[in-house]
Amino acid sequence: MYQVEDIQLVESKSYGTVLIKAKAILDYLMDHDSGLTLKEIHEGMEMSKSTTLKILTTMCELDLLWRNDEDKKYHLGAELIGLGQKALADFNIHQIALPYLKELRDATEETVHLGVEIADHVEFLEKLESPRSVNLKSKIGGRLNLYCSAMGKAILATKTPDELENYFDSNPLDPLTKFTLVNRKAIMKQIDVVRQNGYSIDDRENEVEVFCIGTVLKKHNQVYGAFSVSTPYYRMDEDREKRIIKLVLETKEKIEQAI
């Protein structure tokens, strides 16, 4: 969602301030589960009432929004359905995320992975190798289990209770190392922690002696993938873990803003 200062920053560099404000209104509506009134939009966006009304009226004429006459709330319009489907068909998370993931690899000097969920697994889209000596089994096109990987647990943390129940009922929790959690309740506790912290940990659960910190890429309730930093366990200490977590969360924010 655009904040007022974000709109002003973009306006200084772009042509067409009305388009920028219209996009900000769309983002604002997408971040709310139900429609919003004119008052709620212009106050929430800190835009003048007259300007907001003009933009909303134009967007309704274009079917980008529609207004419920009973409660006077504005909702996303049908025209966005086709646009959204085409955008998803053309969307390439790899292309968007890659520059930021390269920066993360260079900053951490560790291996960085990008993945997406496919058939209850994480499939690798990218692997950026560490410049330091390390030998990880992962390869592009390879797959990880959700329950015992950093990217996988980050993805599980975005799911509803029903989706999680279906996942656990359909997938055996086999131990891959002596550190792998195979108890559903214990994994659910980890998932709760991931939701609170915004990142996930794989402490030698998927590959012995490999420690991973991961997070999900999500915007407007749409999950686009996940990424992680993987390091040999012997190179990890408390201070380094905190530093990598900070870099991972900063990278997450940059990519989500670029989506």
Automatic annotation (TrEMBL):
Keywords noted in UniProt: DNA-binding, Transcription, Transcription regulation
Highest rank taxon of the organism: Bacteria
Record-annotated HTH iclR-type domain positions: 16-78
Domain IclR-ED: 79-259
Pfam families given in the database record: HTH_IclR, IclR_C
Molecular-function GO term, any one: DNA-binding transcription factor activity
GO biological process, one term: negative regulation of DNA-templated transcription
Protein name per UniProt: Transcriptional regulator iclr family protein
Species, as recorded: Companilactobacillus tucceti DSM 20183
Source organism phylogeny: Bacteria, Bacillati, Bacillota, Bacilli, Lactobacillales
